[in-house]
Amino acid sequence: WNIPDGWKTTISADGDITAEATSSDGIPISFPVSASKDGQSVTVTCDHASGSTFPLGTTQIICSTAEGRTTSFMVSVEDSTPPTVSAPADFEVNTDYAEGINVEFDVTATDLIGLSGSASCNTESGSLFPLGESVITCTATDTSGNTGTASFKIKVVTDIAPPVINVPSDITVDATSQSGVSVEYPTVTATDPLGIMEGPTC
């Protein structure tokens, strides 16, 4: 008996495909599928055309020929790219107060797919920052659960002007012996805008 022509038809694809999404719509993906009958190429029709935009997740592609030969494979579109968090460079601020200063800064986040919320920092903009250096870490999470981070430093400095030392006026006294004379003078004081000082000592 004769073998039907359809039995001599073959169809093949390159296998499952995994790709990273480039937008909230997914990503366009092209794939090669070929078929031949008795060594001659024949038309293959797929339920998703090559070059189509595939959404996040897994899509099964089924391709067939007019003779009924079929093949299938999976297209998986993933989002493993974390958001980009944009924070300022390290910077320094001055204050005249011992408790520190309120500092504002801008932090933004972007993501190809979408954010689940705005960027947040371990110390928010506008908070009171103490004297010294503080490390600010900011994070943002996208709708796929990926988290991006960025850090910067804020240094609060003060005491730019030195303390003011208050001394008495010049004193002139007569010696009472060859050794000189004991002299008492008013207490020497010092003031500082922030009260951050030691002394004074004479």
Write a structural description.
With about 200 residues, the chain is mostly beta strands. The chain has strands spanning about 10-15, 15-20, 25-30, 35, 40, 45, 55, 55-65, 70-80, 85, 90-95, 100, 110, 120, 130, 130-140, 145-155, 165, 190.
Radius of gyration from the alpha-carbon trace, in angstroms: 38 Å
What pattern of helices and strands is seen along the backbone? EEEEEEEEEEEEEEEEEEE
* Biggest β-sheet description: 4 strands, mixed
**How far from one another are the termini?**
122 Å
Indicate the percent of residues in helices.
under 10%
Low-confidence stretches: none
Tell me the strand order in the biggest sheet: 2-9-8-6
Overall geometry comes to: rod-shaped
Structural class: mainly beta
Question: Hey, roughly how much beta strand do the residues contain?
Answer: 35-45%
**Number of β-strand runs:** 19
Please state the average pLDDT score: 89
Number of helical regions: 0
Provide the descriptors you would attach to this structure in a database record:
mainly beta; 202 residues; four-stranded mixed sheet; single chain; 0% helix
How would you sum up this structure in a few lines?
The protein has 202 residues and is mostly beta strands. It contains no helices and 19 strands.
